[in-house]
Write a structure and sequence with these properties.
Layout lengths: L2 E5 L7 E3 L2 H9 L4 E4 L12 H7 L1 H11 L3 E7 L6 H7 L4 E2 L4 E8 L1 E7 L2 E7 L3 E5 L5 E4 L6 E7 L8 E2 L11 H8 L5
Antiparallel strand pairs: 1-2, 1-8, 3-9, 4-11, 5-12, 6-9, 6-11, 7-8, 7-10
This protein binds fe (ii) ion.
Length: about 190
């Protein structure tokens, strides 16, 4: 189940939401797009990237028309990946991109942290969720110690994007993916 926790500071209790429309509304208020997509054709568990992209082509086209995305790819990461820790650490610190960061969760989960207007929005994305973090929005991302995710990524340039780190240690003060799941996400998420 998708979950949003909004912190005014690391030491205060966050406002926690589980209702999808409520989450989308709050995130929309800070310019973050949050949608739920359905596949427009049945999709096998071991589908190849082309089949995955084809299954969501209608939704991808709709977003492309709105935002001008130029390319899309599919990434998968499971807990048995030999470099899972390195990959996890890559985006664990606060950063920005000069482009949107768009992720659609075909399967699995991931936790986005968006730092905006002196608040931190922790967004647990689950299967079927689309999140779009605007360019130049400070954020970070945690996939947890046992990652399980398959995502479609959308880019406005063929080159994709690079992270520009802010140097802040803010990420250390908030629950990581594992703690967040234990604390806020229902077990059957
Ligand atoms: Fe990022």
């Amino acid at each position: 189940m998708s979950t949003l926790a909004v912190y005014s500071s690391p030491d205060t209790r966050p406002r926690v939401l589980h209702d999808f429309d409520d989450i989308a509304s709050v995130l929309g208020g800070i310019g973050v797009l949050f949608e739920h997509w359905e596949a427009n054709r049945p999709l096998a568990g071991d589908a190849d990237p082309q089949s995955i992209l084809a299954a969501y082509q209608d939704s991808i086209d709709r977003l492309n028309e709105r935002f001008g995305f130029q390319s899309a790819d599919v990434i998968s990461l499971q807990a048995d990946h030999p470099q899972k820790d390195t990959l996890r650490n890559k985006f664990l610190s606060e950063h920005v991109h000069a482009d949107f960061e768009v992720r659609f969760f075909v399967d699995g989960k991931g936790l986005f942290y968006i730092h905006k207007n002196n608040q931190v929005y922790l967004v647990l994305c689950t299967r079927g969720d689309l999140i779009s973090v605007p360019a130049d929005t400070t954020h970070w991302f945690d996939m947890g110690t046992e990652p399980c995710l398959q995502c479609i990524r959308l880019f406005t340039t063929e080159d994709g994007w690079v992270a520009d780190f802010t140097g802040s240690d803010i990420a250390r003060h908030y629950p990581d993916f594992d703690e967040f799941e234990r604390t806020f996400a229902p077990a059957k998420a």
